[in-house]
Design a protein that fits this description.
mainly alpha; three-stranded antiparallel sheet; 16 helices; globular
Length: 383
């Protein structure tokens, strides 16, 4: 993930300041308030080291122009979130192929919801294309990948998430910078502390901006005096995304690229997965990568944008995976497991943790070693 834009989480615990600027002691803070529906590990947990870190941080924040009132409001009902650290440690461990990534990023559901969202907000999206030069379908596709068109914006306190990650120290300086930026956003009046929520890593709103990128690129397109990327109305968030791309190299009138279906292609040709489709990409592909520095992400955005605009699925095919299974095989495996009572959570051809658990359960039921590994033999055994 590109740390210049976003990367975060969230949580809850509360501190106040005395009139002379000293942080109150831990035994004086108010009780944490957990948001309904959050996993237990994304709720505030007592942590004396974190409490001491916050005390020191608040003094540094005052020196950087954060007011005592902002600190009181920002840290009210916030705290250390152990689940943020767990997710931060684990988030790079599972690597998907491009085929798996596109199965999720450009699923039939995401395409159909994208077309509906585009139709609903077409006037806004086309106004943004006119103003910033960024294709309306690209803006919609980023919205779709980042928050499923606003359905999954995240309920974690940005202050809790960024402070937890800053205290953890693995990227302490980066996250302390994000925490300061988040407090400055509160101080500016764009959002209240209770509404400043996002992902477990602190990315915010419909299109998941990190606080420093919000400061640099967010815009008030509605003209109400606030850059509100959290509102049910996605206008400011979509406009902020268009502004981000426009200021990071997007060229008006050029596309992101295209699938190469013949022997040659104009522009830089990439093949992210050996044996899979090839793509001729433009400078706008690189602009999308400034949003998230990943070829798979940029292809996902571009291809989803094409599908939202009515384009066809990819024509190229992917080779069998390391276990000798094609996507069609993996879908069949999921369907057959589910039919036998071993729930895979869907049949998209992506064998994630739930499918692996189903495979293990099935293997145990027939007296095999529960490896969780798929194979052509396993598929055949399911009938």
């Amino acid at each position: 993930m590109d740390f210049s834009r976003r990367y975060f989480g969230f949580g809850l615990a509360a501190f106040g300041l005395t009139a002379c600027g000293n942080v109150t002691q831990a035994n004086q803070r108010s009780a944490p308030v957990a948001k309904a529906g959050l996993p237990a590990d994304l709720r505030p947990t007592a942590n004396a080291g974190y409490d001491a870190w916050v005390e020191g941080f608040q003094k540094r924040a005052i020196a950087q122009g954060i007011s005592e009132a902002t600190l009181r409001a920002g840290f009210r009902n916030t705290g250390y979130l152990p689940g943020v650290i767990k997710r931060d440690r684990n988030q790079t461990e599972f690597k998907r192929t491009l085929e798996d990534y596109l199965s999720i990023a450009v699923s039939d559901e995401r395409v159909s919801k994208g077309r509906a969202a585009f139709a609903k907000h077409q006037g806004t999206l086309q106004a943004l294309e006119t103003k910033y030069g960024v294709d309306a379908s690209i803006i919609a596709a980023i919205w779709g990948l980042e928050s499923f068109y606003g359905e999954r914006r995240g309920d974690v306190s940005v202050i809790s998430a960024t402070s937890t990650l800053a205290y953890d120290g693995r990227r302490g300086a980066f996250f302390e910078k994000q925490l300061i930026a988040a407090l400055k956003i509160l101080q500016n009046g764009d959002i209240t502390a209770s509404r400043m929520t996002g992902s477990w890593a602190g990315a915010m709103g419909h299109t998941q901006f990190i606080p420093t990128s919000y400061q640099a690129f967010a815009v008030d397109f509605t003209g109400d005096g606030r850059r509100d990327i959290w509102s049910e109305d996605p206008t400011d968030a979509l406009a902020s995304t268009a502004a981000y791309l426009a200021r990071n190299g997007w060229t008006r009138g050029s596309n992101w690229g295209r699938e190469v279906t013949s022997g040659t292609g104009t522009g830089a040709v990439i093949q992210p997965q050996e044996g899979g489709p090839r793509f001729a990409v433009t400078g706008n592909f690189r602009a999308i990568k400034r949003y998230n520095n990943s070829d798979a992400y940029a292809i996902g955005v571009g291809h989803l944008a094409d599908r939202i605009a009515g384009g066809p699925p990819l024509r190229g095919t992917f080779p069998p995976d390391a276990n000798g299974l094609t996507k069609e095989d993996r879908v069949a495996l999921q369907l057959r497991l589910t039919a036998k009572g071993f729930d895979t959570g869907g049949a998209d051809g992506v064998l994630g943790p739930k499918s692996q658990a189903a495979i293990r359960a099935y293997q145990s039921s027939i007296g095999q070693a529960a490896t969780g590994l798929p194979s052509p033999e396993l598929l055949r055994s399911l009938g």
